[in-house]
Amino acid sequence: MTGNKITFWSFIQKNKIEIPIIQRDYAQGRLGKEYLRQGFLTNLKEALDEEDDEKELKLDFVYGSVENGKLQPLDGQQRLTTLWLLHWYIALRSGKLEEAGCILKNFTYETRVSSREFCEHLCDESNFSSFICTDGKDSGRCSQMNIVDFIIGQTWFYSAWKQDPTIQSMLRMLGGTKINNKKGEDIIDGIEELFSNASFEEMESYWQKLTNNSPIVFYYLPLKEFGLSDDLYIKMNARGKQLTMFENFKADLIGFIQGQAESEQDNSKWKRLSNEANGIAIKMDTTWTDIFWRNRSESKRIDEIYFAFINRYILNSLILGLNSADVVEGNKNFCHLYGNKGNDTALQYTSFEFYKIPSLEVALEKLQTTLENFHSFISDKKEEALKDIQKEFLPLWDKQDSFRFIPEYEDDTITALTQSQRVAFHAICRYFELGKYEKESFNRWMRVVWNLVANGNINSIESMIGSLRLIDELGLHSHEIYGFLASDETIKSNVASEQQNEEREKAKKIIEDINWEEIIVSAEKYAFFKGAVRFLFRNENGEWNWRNFNRKWNNTQVFFGKEGAYQKDTMLLRYFISKFMDWSLFEGMTFDNAGSSWRTVLLDKKWMKPIHEILISDNIEIEDNYQSVLMSSDNIQKRLQEDLVSTNLLDYIVSDCLLHNNVLYPSNAKADWKKYVIANKRNEILSSLYGGKILDNDKQEGKIYTNQKIEINCDFFWGWNIQFEYVHKSFPYKFHWQSWGWIDMYEGDIRLIDKKTPFTDKLVIDACLINTTEDLTRELERCINDYMEYKKVFVDNAIP
User: Fold this and answer.
1) Residue 253 in contact with residue 94, Cβ under 8 Å?
2) Taking a C-beta distance cutoff of 8 angstroms, is the pair 677, 667 a contact?
């Protein structure tokens, strides 16, 4: 059976309509819904005023379930209530209530006694004998009171009914409000307001139209005849008491689909989407609802997660339908659907205009196929099984990832998507769009997807769009992804090209021998690798070569496991640096033991030769008296390599250090103490004279004291400039070894050379002349002696 197109009068004549207790209150009459009422009522009246008898106003679907001989509307209660009030009011004003009352009494409420009794009183013509006129007067009314005041002034109207939200909403739909629009004009949002100028004869004409050949129709679909489950009734009516944004969106979407199906010349897709038996409308309220019901909130809400899912799907369809990232980011529909900085969890529905994307009918057909195939996948799964299914959506290396394909409720909000997760969301949609679930093919597809996503550097809208297009392209082969990757067929997208090449090589290996799949997957989810393991089968020249895979994989587990060598100390890092033969390898490297830093050098072709060497090594040891292997004539560069390899400096420096010239510093460093000047003779010379910190007691003759020594057993100092005191004849004198190559003597905070006297010109040391400890000691004492001469002349400024 297909949906029956029917008028309200025909419907109520044949059925006793009972609004079930679980249904929300009558919401179209709420305060705050003035414009909704105005628009809907205006459409109804315009349909009645239409002279073309062939033109109809179609009001979407009404689904129902017959219980104990009574038809309970599953969806459509709001429309049915408004239509009932419209018929009642026109019957009243046209003098037809006495004959129509017995029919109108077929509309009632299940267990809401107040609402049921109110409707019964409205249908009793005798209660309105002083309001209506049957003597042919133009007004059709005897009372000068408005309908609402008349009703609440009757003895049968209980004062307690003023607290009943459904009754109050019905009265508001009848009489409207006194709320004005921005121009100060009354919003015509009540039935009485709309028909206030209609004569008795016009009201009779309206009644004849409503009861004989009404232009206002809807489709009725009995759920039992569609084989839908009884519990779906509860699911669809557990969305809460308020008319949600999603319901307004759904109504506009279905209305738009029906409009396109009727108006478009080439409308085959729209006709399929509007099909009453298996189109979008029935699916949204039945099988699709079942999908989201499984993630319902504690208060049994699903509208927010349902709305978010469709928003995300439409947004991705919009992105894929536009030409470039610039065009996408400048698109008003994108700006709305993308939300606040990508967070769409608080997205408000304001207008269907934002959903009118290019080829919307194609996107909706794909959405329909996607959700139908997904529903068939989960329909017979229990709650525990669904938890296991959720894990199949996540990266192999992180089964605690926050990604949820079907959004979930978290307190007062719902789960959001990161840029990477938005791409994974599309990957799952693409898979189900193109076929039904099969465990092996789905898990292989998601493995490849997450490998590409995790290694696609998705850190902006532009990069997200690029990755989305790559996954969309690969999605054509999502049910046989290994075969496609191994075929060497062209991939148009160059996003994550290195990872694409890796996935191709791994697919070929697995197809060659299925036993490799388990080994490769184990490596991909190991440590911090996140799917990228090409260093295990790439030789020193960057060529694919699996000959050393086992040795490299064994060493990798030793080096980078939870208790791996890379975390214990910097021996592995120093050994790695010891293999650098080109100065360019120092550039762009982060000198610390963080997993992210190691991941960079493991994957970048720039470091493939030293990475290959350490992964095939039997022992990680630094030779005694290590000498630089740099192919360079620059002694500073060679000294720098030796400083990093032969000393324990790297054990003590601040993490995230980069190298510029011969200075190590964190990428965000501003403080002077975070900078380390290396490959510099001052570290060695000052260390040889180091006696302790400036505030130490019992200072030794001929020693320097500074607070900038890193550690006692590490012969390096932090800072561009090193401030120290040198003890001569039991007295400390202050000096600064400046980064620009001079050692200045100070009095307090004053640099003596700045005093511009014949003596102070001598109170400085040229660091270029200092090559040994003896050189420094000699020059410091010479400077101190010159200072003593200076004091004899300028006794007034002689405080050291």
Assistant:
1) no
2) no
Residue in the structure block whose two tokens are 């995230």: 656
Q: Which two tokens stand for residue 771?
A: 């090559």
User: How many whole angstroms separate alpha carbon 612 and alpha carbon 531?
Assistant: 19
For residues 51 and 47, give the distance between their C-alpha atoms in angstroms, rounded to a whole number: 9
Q: Report residue 239: phi and psi, to 5°.
A: -85, 0
Q: What is the pTM of this model?
A: 0.74
What is the residue type of 427? A
The answer to whether the Cα torsion of 519, 525, 528, 532 is positive or negative is positive
Task: Show Cβ contacts of residue 754 under 8 Å, excluding neighbours closer than 6 positions.
Answer: 760
Within 10 angstroms of residue 245's Cβ, the number of other Cβ atoms is 15
Q: Decide if 514 contacts 506 (C-beta within 8 A).
A: no
Q: Mean pLDDT, to the nearest integer, of 417-425?
A: 97
Most confidently modeled of 330-339, 431-440, 618-627? 431-440
E strands in 433-564? none
Beta bridge partners of 180: 186
Expressed in percent and rounded to 5, the helix, strand and coil fractions of the chain are 50, 10, 40
* CB neighbourhood size of 407 (10 A): 25
What span, in angstroms and rounded, lies between the C-alpha atoms of 296 and 303? 9
d(C-alpha 660, C-alpha 637), whole Å: 11
CA 659 to CA 731: how far, in whole Å? 38
DSSP letter (8 states) at residue 351: -
**Amino acid code (one letter) for 214:** S
Instruction: Return the residue matching tokens 């006129």.
Output: 133
Q: Which two tokens stand for residue 272?
A: 């399929």
**Using one digit for the tens of pLDDT, what is the confidence trace for 1-52?**
345 789 999 999 988 998 876 556 677 888 888 888 998 999 999 999 998 8
Q: Where are the domains of the chain?
A: 4-239, 280-495, 549-674, 681-797
As a whole number of angstroms, the distance between CA 744 and CA 783 comes to 9
